[in-house]
Records
---
Amino acid sequence: MTSVVIQGVSWWSSSQFNKKQLTESIDNAQNVFEQYTKEKEKILTTAARVLTADFGFKQAVTTNDKETIASVLLNHGQRIDADLMLLTDLKGQLISSSISKLDLNAAQSASLGILLLEPGTTHFMILQNTLYQLLALPVKAPRTVAYAIVGFEIDYDIADELKRLTGLDVSFFNSAGEVITTSMELTNETLTPDYLTSKMLPWLLGSRSAFDSRQFELETTKKHPVKLFLTAELSTIYQEHDRLLSSTIVIACLIMLIAILLSRIFAKNLTKPLLQLVEQSKAFSKGQYAHVVPNQNISQEVAVLFEAFTEMGNALDAREQKIIYQSQHDTLTGLYNRHTFRQIINKTLINEQRHVLITIDIRGFSNLNDILGVQVGDRCLQMLAQRLIGINGNDVQHARLDGDVFLSLIPLTEDVHIDRYVQEFISDLAKPLDVDSLTLNLKFWAGIAIYPQDGSDAAAVFRRAMIALDYAAKDNTPVRYYHSGEEEARQEHLTIIEALRLALTKADGQLYMNYQPKLNLKTGEIDKVEALIRWKHPELGFVSPEVFISYAEQTGIIFDLTSWVIDTVLEQLSNWQKNGLFIDAAINISAQDISHPDFQMNLNNAAVKHNISPEYITLEVTERDLMQDEVQAVALLLELKEKGYTISVDDYGIGQSSLAKLKQLPVDELKIDKSFIMQLASSESDQIIVSSTITLGHRLGLSVVAEGLENNGSLDILRTMGCDHIQGYFLSKPLSANSFVEWLGSYYKNNI
Ligand code: C2E
Ligand code: CA
Ligand code: CA
């Protein structure tokens, strides 16, 4: 484009320059022509003066001596090389002529007359198809008697000479547009003023003027104007021009060709490698970081770029690998994390191949962290991870879950004895560990699930191994295998807990209290009841208190449950008291209630709220619960006892606590466990135990209750043994509050 524009502009300016040159040369030509005619005019003036001053000629004119006039005109004319010598009268009528047969028509004569009006000035005039430059001077003798006219013919030679002088063609036309004289080599028919001004030459798709002409009228008699055309023939200029144009086009084409060639070379050396790099960066975005090798020879600069790309790819690759590694591994130990391990076992546990999944928890790890510091703890975890990796072969996978829990998935062949294998595994792991300068003897809990026997899919095996670990910690067993059905039980457990939580908040009658009467054998009165909780769930149905109480104890909601029981029972007592029934109630409390800081406050608040004096309330605590946190229990029970509450040791006899210990506890009552009472009549050994328990209890100043009395025979035995209270189905099953009042009425009716 650039070359085309440059070439075009230079072509255009050269043509402008040519045009200007042309105009100038025409101007010049015009000057030359004027100069030329002036020179001729001078010659004519001199010649005419000489002629008109000639005495003989003057005389011949005055005498009208035609022969002499004619000969003078002829001689004189030849001498000055004039083409025309005339003598006219004052009106312009021809008297004599150097041309013998000159025959003027009227118009020409009139023209001559006009010529006479301006003597001494040259005029152009056409006479008999010939153009003359004429000049008239008066012949004075002494007054003007005639006019002498002298002229030169403007013929081809003159035109040619003018052409030579000006470099332009010279053409003269008459008023009819007919050529009179011309330097051009054209036939008279062709050459017209029109032809000179509008002749076109075909050029490319259009045309262009053949000539550049300037026309002007010559100084002449107005009646017979003569037009002069100064004409430049353009074809030669055109030739030059066309040569320039064609070379311009050739040069432009050449430049374009070179440009195309150069851009091809560029494309090869730059664009193609760049495109390759573009492709490469697309590959990068898809995570493909192959080494970038150029497909062709490349320049040094591009090679640097390729190197940079390769470096970038490597860096990206490394970083991505690192990110992937970090997302899959535990940063501390380098073992797999939970997420990845789950994926791995999903992939591994798909066929029948036996695998054991061992979960390991370090016992007391948080203590170790607290005492020796987190750094030692971390080192310990790292070394343990190394030990795990070292213990087993290649296809064994290990992971660390959050904290101090490790997992190992181990494929087992049929001949491997699992118990033995696990024992070895744990004992290898438990070898003394040298952490920094310390030697640690770590102990573990291990939970074990076996594929496929403990679960048909990876997720189940994983869950069950975790359940086994949970039980290992709860039961404090070093190695705990998963037992079939445990997960389902746990599930039920969760369902029950959730439902119980809801039941406690709703107070919609799902939970209610039953009361089981106690008979005072000394007075024969029903002076006590034991409050026992009942739960009837709309979907789960009747749930045994033995089940949900133990779940509530495990999950910590027992405190809320006991609070609810206390409130409900005290409200009931207050209702009864308002109706004149003053009776003791025994409430069962758990170990967690004793250790709860708010328990005592809760109890007192409820007593105040329902206006029940503590002497009406017995608290039943099992022998086992009492022994769990002895010091705290003693402190609490002392305070409660001081307030007036009665403390009873429930399920006495199965907790294997010595009476000596019992002696130190602030209790009021012993409740012999029902397992000793139910078959009392038929079991001699039970009788020995119960009898001695009653005796010893009394010695310690305690009141003794026998629960689980089912028959009359046992009642008699207990009576003779001096037991204070009895409770059991023989007397009554636990009853609702209303039923109890009814039962009480009928009891007294029958026993009085
Ligand atoms: P427990 O405190 O030893 O309660 C006595 C249990 O023996 C009651 O069972 C009662 O129905 C049953 N029983 C009474 N007489 C006889 C009899 O003659 N023969 C037989 N075979 N059984 C008899 P229940 O009501 O099923 O309660 C079971 C356990 O649930 C209770 O044992 C107690 O530990 C716990 N429990 C019940 N209610 C509450 C409560 O409100 N709070 C707390 N913390 N525990 C409760
Ligand atoms: Ca009880
Ligand atoms: Ca009991």
Note: The CA atoms of residues 597 and 636 lie 10 Å apart.
---
Amino acid sequence: MNGSDIIILGIESSCDDTSAAILKNGEILSNIVAGQKVHEKFGGVVPELASRAHQQNIIPTVDTAIREAGISKKDIHAVAFTRGPGLLGSLIVGTSFAKSFALGRNIPLVEVNHMQGHILAHFIKNADANYPHFPFICMTVSGGHTQLVLVKDYFDMEILGQTLDDAAGEAFDKAAKILGLPYPGGPLIDQYAREGNPAKFQFPVSNIPDYNFSFSGLKTSILYFLQKETAKNPNFIAENLKDICASYQHTILKTLFRKLVKATREYKISDVAIAGGVSANSQLRAELEQIGKEENWRTFIPPFQYTTDNAGMIAIAGYYKFLKKEFVGQDVAADARLKF
Ligand code: KG4
Ligand code: ZN
């Protein structure tokens, strides 16, 4: 350990993953994520069960992160935690833990906005030292949010557009539920879609002005479509699952990329990033590369472990705030609707 090293403990608990990470000078030493199987049988996250599971997981998760990083508690210079947005009961567990850890060790406390964390994950040190240049546009697509963000600096971000109803991840998960697939359905739709024909079935692409999105109509259209088809053929879903997944996924991606291209042209942006759980989608990643070539973008795709919720992204955001000495006091409270 070097005297000038900066070691941050990151804590993430906004939804249904309890995560702790150790970051040294912007480089990840450990990033532990404890998922919660308890929600699977309900087809979605049950907030009360999520906060209870966070309470059970938080101490062993932090302990594992510290051990795996090969450091000891006394080496940590600051604690960064997700203050919001997210589920209040879940956020309170991480926030309370971070506050007591900081108090107990007498080290600074840094609050992080979860959505900024998703975006700043692009600045976690990588072997190629390949990072987006400001200003860039990040399309953040997760289970709770769908945003086009103009990123002017680490903490100077402007939301150009967002979903007016369901998030892109919800569009995946809700369709998966209708198709009888377990939660979260996004990765399964991704998997089936790889072998399906995206042009087989047509679903409507929403036409919302500016850079906003709407996905609730799409979910209704797949519901009615499947009700109609299964009335004629009860085996319709099983016989066409791959094509349904490919066609439905194609519609979501078309909606997203149409707005992304429009925004980059309007704002004359050439560095384009994606973030959030849905950015793990293989077709989305492939299309970003493809469209990026056509549009002359430099594209930034996060490694898989930094797409879905993880504390590494909270630790890197915390690191940049630490450098600016942006600390918060013990009076800080979780905020389910935190804005940036
Ligand atoms: O960022 P995240 O882990 O949590 C939130 O902050 O919401 O995102 C979770 C979302 C879920 O809706 C999940 O279905 C979706 O990301 N997701 C995917 C894929 N992997 C995760 N959606 C499509 N394709 C994937 N491969
Ligand atoms: Zn997230």
Note: Residues 106 and 171 are 44 Å apart (CA to CA).
